[in-house]
C-alpha cells in the first residue's frame, strides 16, 4: 500500500483580491524576464504548485467514522498520479476502500485538480466522500498563496 509521503512545493506568489477578482502583480523593475501575472497564479497562470501532496479524508459509514489517505501528484494543475492508503476500521470498509483504491487512478489521472469530484468508484460510493474531503484539503494546501 502507501507509505506516508510529505508535501513538496515551492513558495507561492500573490493572492486574489477580497472580491474574488484576480489582481495583477508587476515584476520588480530589475527583473525584465518576469511578466505581469494574475495575483495568486503561478507560472503560465497555474493555480496550484507542482508537487506531491498527502492528506487524510474523513467520511461517515454505517459502521461509524472512517478515514482514507490520499496522495496526489500535480503538474501544471493536472493530477499526474494518485495513491490511496486504505485506513479501515472494520472489515466491510476494508473491502470498499480496497476496491476504491484499485479504480481511482483511471477515474482522475489526467484531470485538472479543480475538476475532481468523484461520486462512485469501483462500486464504492461512501469512500468517495473521504477522497473528496482529502482533495479539498490538497486544493487548499497546493494553491499559490500571497507572499
UniProtKB/TrEMBL annotation:
Residues 134-147 have a biased composition (Basic and acidic residues). It comes from the Bacteria. Residues 13-68, 123-147 are annotated as: Disordered. Residues 13-23, 30-46 have a biased composition (Low complexity). This is FMN-binding domain-containing protein. The lineage of its organism: Bacteria, Bacillati, Actinomycetota, Actinomycetes, Micrococcales.
Amino acid at each position: 500500500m502507501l507509505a506516508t509521503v510529505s508535501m513538496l512545493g515551492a513558495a507561492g506568489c500573490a493572492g486574489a483580491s477580497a472580491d474574488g477578482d484576480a489582481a495583477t502583480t508587476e515584476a520588480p523593475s530589475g527583473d525584465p524576464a518576469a511578466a505581469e501575472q494574475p495575483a495568486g497564479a503561478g507560472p503560465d497562470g497555474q493555480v496550484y504548485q507542482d508537487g506531491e501532496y498527502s492528506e487524510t479524508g474523513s467520511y461517515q459509514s454505517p459502521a461509524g467514522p472512517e478515514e482514507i489517505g490520499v496522495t496526489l501528484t500535480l503538474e501544471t494543475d493536472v493530477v499526474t498520479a494518485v495513491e490511496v492508503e486504505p485506513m479501515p476500521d472494520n472489515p466491510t470498509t476494508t473491502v470498499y476502500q480496497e476496491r476504491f483504491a484499485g479504480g481511482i487512478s483511471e477515474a482522475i489521472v489526467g484531470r485538472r485538480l479543480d475538476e475532481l469530484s468523484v461520486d462512485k468508484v469501483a462500486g464504492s460510493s461512501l469512500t468517495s466522500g473521504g477522497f473528496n474531503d482529502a482533495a479539498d484539503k490538497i486544493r487548499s494546501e497546493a494553491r499559490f498563496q500571497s507572499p
